[in-house]
Automatic annotation (TrEMBL):
Pfam entry (one): Chromo
Domain Chromo positions: 177-235
Location(s), subcellular: Nucleus
Stretches with biased composition (Basic and acidic residues): 248-258
Organism: Parasitella parasitica
Database matches in InterPro entries: Chromo-like_dom_sf (IPR016197), Chromo/chromo_shadow_dom (IPR000953), Chromo_domain (IPR023780), Chromodomain_CS (IPR023779), Heterochromatin_chromo-domain (IPR051219)
PROSITE patterns per UniProt: CHROMO_1 (PS00598), CHROMO_2 (PS50013)
Protein name per its UniProtKB record: Chromo domain-containing protein
Region (Disordered): 230-271
Length: 271
């Protein structure tokens, strides 16, 4: 409306107030003007040629007070009742379509999260496991992986499935490493082994690992997508191009970011 001329806001104040006061509220279905003044607002038209007609008698104060009492006893309770009904209907609609927990997942519990990047039927529905580290003020969850590094995003309740309130076993958190990429494979399906380059380590640390050693299938799927990038599919169609595996050089490592985030959370909880 202002089209960048914010200094002209006062020119639109009257018109904006009129529109807001004459707009029917979804909560109770009435105009704010009608609720306050118990009458319909005047229409937007030229009244300069309309001759004012004064009442023949003075305002009856007693009658006016009776009208106000009637409004308080009938109109206001009816509006309040309608607001309650609308809110109850909204709440029922929301609960029907969202996962509502009366109690949050316990701190330290083991959970799986919804695979939001799923694009094929064969992709897993959930990823993990992760452990619950804390909550945000909006009700989402701060999660950690097996290496105690934070996830890059907070997870809503609707995307979480509880595995165990006991958390991830300690032995599963030991000797956990991050896959940078898979370089090669050996053996025949379904007994493949994969040559893995580990994040933060040079080629002397490359090792052959079976699929059971991976927490998820993303790294394996990316490898096969790269391996089959130039081969046609069984239906003669070109294979979907794989995701890029180049790692952008960042200022801080994942572990350093995790440490800084822990410090921020500790500072907030200590206040």
């Amino acid at each position: 409306m202002l089209e960048g001329r914010t200094e002209n806001w006062n020119l639109y104040l009257d018109g904006t107030a009129y529109c807001l006061n004459c707009h029917k509220s979804r909560l109770h279905g009435m105009m704010p003007f009608v609720v306050v003044f118990a009458r319909l607002p005047n229409e937007l038209k030229d009244y300069s040629q309309v001759k004012a007609v004064l009442p023949d008698q003075e305002i009856d104060v007693k009658t006016l007070k009776k009208k106000i009492k009637r409004i308080d006893k009938i109109l206001v309770p009816a509006i309040r009742e309608q607001i309650v009904k609308t809110k109850e209907a909204d709440n029922a609609y929301f609960r029907k379509r969202h996962k509502i927990l009366e109690k949050p997942f316990p701190i330290g519990s083991s959970v799986m999260i919804k695979n939001v990047d799923k694009n094929k039927k064969t992709d897993p529905n959930y990823e993990g496991p992760f452990s619950v580290y804390g909550y945000t003020k909006n009700g989402s969850y701060i999660l950690q992986d097996k290496s105690n590094a934070f996830l890059s995003r907070d997870i809503p309740t609707s995307h979480i499935k509880l595995i165990s309130e006991d958390g991830i076993p300690t032995e599963e958190k030991q000797n956990v490493y991050v896959v940078q990429s898979i370089l090669n494979h050996s053996g025949e399906a379904p007994n493949h082994k994969y040559l893995v380059r580990w994040e933060g380590y040079d080629s002397s640390w490359d090792s052959w690992e079976p699929p059971s050693m991976f927490d998820g299938t993303e790294a394996i799927a990316t490898y096969w997508a790269r391996r089959n990038a130039v081969q046609p599919s069984s239906e003669g169609k070109k294979q979907k191009l794989p995701k890029i595996v180049n790692k952008r050089k960042v200022e801080s490592s994942r572990q350093e970011k995790s440490v800084r985030r822990k410090a921020r959370i500790a500072a907030i909880t200590s206040k």
